[in-house]
Specification:
Lambda_DNA-bd_dom_sf, DNA-binding, elongated, DNA binding, mainly alpha, 434 Repressor (Amino-terminal Domain), XRE family transcriptional regulator
Length: 121
């Protein structure tokens, strides 16, 4: 029984993390999912166990996999990785290639030890 409570708390904390990274309030999530603010709060605190259908709704909302919501948070990428992934997915393939090239140039420049004023991108 205690293990169930801990799992619910961990999943709830992960949902709260995704919500915050997404820039959404509990009220906004509640509205988008057709739930009450109190229900979202209780889910995030782990006092309500989530079924698979509800987890799927959260995963769709946060553009992640259901497994991302239920696995140990220590195995999850940082919040910045999730944010980058969401932003990256808003680009078309040509824009993605250009962004990757730019990032590679920045890393090459950084590793060269040159002053930031010399970066010409």
């Amino acid at each position: 029984m205690k293990e169930k409570i801990e799992i619910n708390k961990r999943v709830g904390a992960t949902i709260a993390k995704y919500r915050k990274v997404s820039g959404l309030s509990q009220a906004q999530v509640a509205e988008l999912l057709g739930l009450s603010n109190d229900a979202i709060s209780r889910m995030e605190r782990g006092t309500i166990a989530l079924n698979v259908e509800r987890l799927y709704e959260f995963a769709q909302l946060f553009q992640c996999r259901v497994s991302d919501l239920i696995t140990d948070s220590q195995l999850q990428p940082t919040e910045q990785v999730y944010q980058l992934d969401r932003l990256f997915n808003q680009l078309n393939s040509v824009e993605r290639d250009k962004l990757i090239s730019l990032i590679e140039q920045i890393i090459e420049w950084k590793n060269s030890g040159k002053n930031y004023r010399t970066f010409s991108g």
